[in-house]
Amino acid sequence: MTRDEILASLFPNGSDIEIANAILAGKATLPDGRPIHVLGITQGQNLGVDEAIVLAGHVIEIIGSQDQAPILILVDSASQRMSRRDELLGLSEYLAHLAKALLLAEAEGHRTVGLLYGGSAAGAFIATALSTGTLVALPGAHPAVMDLPSMARVTKLSIEVLKAKAEATPVFAPGLDNMVRTGGIQIVWDETAPLAPQLATVLAQPAGQDDRARLGTERGGRLKAAEIADRVVALATASHQGVQHG
Amino acid sequence: MTTVTADTGSLSWYEASARQRIDALVDAGSFQEFIGPELRETSPHLSIFDLPEQFDDGIVVGRSRLQGSPVLVAAQEGRFMGGAFGEVHGAKLTGLLRAACALHQDVLILFDTGGVRLQEANAGELAIAEIMRAVVEARRAGINVIGLIGGRAGCYGGGSLIAGTCSRLIVSEQGRISVSGPEVIETNRGIEEFDSRDRALVWRTMGGKHRYLIGGADLFVDDEALAFRQAAIDALRGKRGYDKAVLEAEQKRLERRLQRFGEAKDAVEIWQALGLDAPTEIPALPTDAFLRAAGKRENADDAR
Question: CATH classification of A3-138+189-207 is 3.90.226.10, yes or no?
């Protein structure tokens, strides 16, 4: 689905969204009449210092409005911008700042929902889609940490060998199914049905704990993460006596 | 485990292992590890690639004391898989941060990482996101999360994003902080964009001195364990909490950085714009002279 088809299907009552340099920002009305903020990075844009500061500024404005309305962030990006200038200026701080803004918005009562409908990779994926309370995707979305050719270069394995290994595990190879199975994406929406009710279902879920590792366990894609984290919590919070090892 | 504590004054943070760093950092004998190597919780994924495992998966987490006060500690081992975040590695840090909320104890993270471990890239990427969320939740609960950066592997990729969520960062000259590493930029954009073999360029673009000068780190220390220890004690006294005011202050700080330095082509131009005397001499200065010269630096002032 294209961005405009997605917006039309999500917001049949209309929306008021501006697009500047592939960054979306605006507001829409949900079918039940409540408002929702809409942000986005689109057109396969790289996320660099300039884009991140603009998006974070929008999130801060929303938090300042104190309207408690949810935020939907549409994501079709490339990776973080890999450039000398961005790193010289401290890109890690800008990406972390955007992530913190989204995380704080959720904590301050704005439900945050990411909608991955195109690509996203590496630091850009973390700072946008993966910093929302709930991440959903549309069929055809293609998240990645690193593309297979680059991965082949780093691991010194051929693409054919990597593809064969990827058949056996969802843990390393790019792609939507793998990110679903490891728990990063809660649900893949049905693009043949209207999106508005599917968004309403997500928004009806209360904000809660980070359940991605649990989902990864249930789906068989990430069997250790939840258990290890829980064990560390249990060991650390048990009384000091007799729990040096566990 | 105790061989290093007697001689912390001369322990190079850069050269030390994760366990040596912890022993030199916290009060002698106070460290207790959670899920230590004797439990052999190794990565379930490295064998797919015929790669060796390590019994602690390259990270040591536990409780300890610093000047008598309880503090939780995590240390990455840069010599195993470049300190990269895999599923087990990341989950140990996520658990430690959640425990910090339950116990209301501060956390020290000793970064030494190239970022996400590619052999388990999806699990590593999600671990980064889970850790960042856990850091923000801990900070909102009034817990200080301090990052210490000065290891061999630097603090790259997703590790640099986690560092960006910390309350305060302590860095040595050797501590490089960057999302994309030099080789990654060169591979993707060409040698004209970034020559990864130009070590001087790497250090002045990503190294600890530059990060400290632009406000990307809060405390600059010698490459010595005792210096990191003293800085950690100081950093833990910093302002607590994470709210809209901190977020807004950081927005202003980062906007100002783009306005002041956004056109600069090289770190030396930024140091010149900061008004430092003899900016070209900065890389050669020893710590005390550097700190004197850094008086006009951009200070994050808790806007982090």
Answer: yes
